[in-house]
Write a structure and sequence with these properties.
By secondary structure, this protein is mostly helical. The protein is built from 4 helices and no strands. The longest helix has 23 residues, at 5-27.
Length: 127
């Protein structure tokens, strides 16, 4: 089966969002804007890990792995993903560890899906 870049990027972003939601429910971490922000786990919140970071890094890693020789593209997509994440820290909505968790989750998800897809190659028939 032939996989397209768009479908793989969409699949990686969806998978990252599902895993982020699972982590949010499992950890139940306080958000940074709740007084006092002690970053406690299992204290009522949905802070860890950041879905925006996971989604943007999942997309960025698929694009970067699809075009490994386009240096400007890698800088662009990873820079955009970092900018999305830093906007949440600047607004004091999330903790830095939430964003790092989102980055890691998105990067691993996107990289895994990008490396397991045959980019435009025909699948070999079963023997």
């Amino acid at each position: 089966m032939r996989q397209t870049l768009g479908f793989t990027a969409l699949e990686s972003m969806g998978a990252a969002n599902v895993m982020t939601y699972g982590l949010n429910v499992a950890t139940n971490r306080q958000c940074a804007y709740n007084p006092p922000p002690h970053a406690e786990f299992w204290e009522g919140g949905r802070s860890f890990s950041l879905g925006h970071a996971a989604t943007s890094f999942a997309f960025a890693s698929v694009m970067a792995h699809r075009y490994p020789h386009k240096f400007w593209l890698k800088w662009g997509v990873y820079g955009l993903a970092t900018g999305v994440s830093l906007a949440c820290v600047g607004g004091k909505k999330r903790f830095a560890s939430d964003i790092l968790g989102g980055h890691t989750l998105g990067y691993v998800t996107g990289t895994y899906l990008a490396l397991t897809r045959a980019w435009g190659q025909r699948a070999k028939p079963d023997s």
